[in-house]
Amino acid sequence: MRRDFCDGVGIARLLNATLVLPKFEAAAYWNESSGFADVFDVDYFIQQMDGFIKVVKELPPEVALKEPFHVDCSKRKGQFDYIESVLPSLLKYQYISITPAMSQRRDRYPLNAKAALCQACYGSLRLTRTLEQKAAELLEAIPKPFLSLHLRFEPDMVAYSQCEYPGLSPASKEAIEAARGDRKPWTGELARTWRNRGKCPLTPNETAFIFQALSIPTNTNIYLAAGDGLMEIEGLKSIYTNVVTKSALLSGEDFLNMHGNTKAALDYFVSINSDFYVATFFGNMDKMVAAMRAYKGLHNTLFLSRRAYAELTSKGLDGKELMQALWLAHKEDFAMGRGSALPDCFCDFKS
């Protein structure tokens, strides 16, 4: 949502349009419907965007009665230009809603739109005072120094990947099956090809194995930036014993009443302020965290290679031989203390 909102700011500047603060879609698997103002400091955002774009909290009454004309910018093939494809609808209907997409690369925006987007991402979006205080409390409670690990092995993620894993517990299998819907797992040669392309999330056990290959000490303090539905976590905790979670460190009714968006905001805050950040996936949160850490000068960021793990194990490597090969696959990024998402952080902060 943070990524899409930043994109929305850039698009509003491209189109010379007024931006209305968005309403978040309800996430069924989180059972919540929290809004923009529940996560971000609205007044601060509007103040900081002054001079870049005009932002309003609500629509004028005469406009609010109308349904917006919806423009779907997602899943477009080839080069997609917002001015050519979206501006005519804005001029005709005056009030539109859009689905942002990366079809038009942000680093190709004109300077005024790029400046607005960068200001939104890195200078204007901050958590509400209450949420930031809770995040600071969480950060203070984590033993130092620590590594923030964004581990993606929830039922919906595994179901979406269409991958199968032998040896999972009955509870994990049941949860994945319940989340599958129409997404049936690949089988046979298709499954092997899919896995070798790096499409299958790393399990906690595989993550622990790669950590050992990188000689990360087993007594490392690890903050688990993950949702409540994480599966097979004992595969990590049985080897790395100093793993902490937000639910173990925070208490009180205010935390218990938090939903997915606000809990994810806690993970984001902790991750951009951690001594080290490691991700097992290359998702939207990981890209945003890596970019913000680069902005803050914190380059100890690493993305574990699902593709390398899959290709090496498909060749029959295991034990010390597999560990050595995994070390070589991660050596450059690990030694440099950087992650492969940094090119996505295209803003020139010093100019």
UniProtKB/TrEMBL annotation:
UniProt GO cellular component terms: membrane
Major subcellular site: membrane
Superkingdom of this protein's organism: Eukaryota
Organism: Populus trichocarpa
One MF term in the entry's GO annotations: glycosyltransferase activity
Pathway membership: Glycan metabolism
Topology with respect to the bilayer: Single-pass type II membrane protein
Family: Belongs to the glycosyltransferase GT106 family.
Keywords: Carbohydrate metabolism, Fucose metabolism, Glycoprotein, Glycosyltransferase, Membrane, Signal-anchor, Transferase, Transmembrane, Transmembrane helix
Gene Ontology terms describing biological process: fucose metabolic process
Protein name per its UniProtKB record: O-fucosyltransferase family protein
Cell compartment(s), UniProt: Membrane
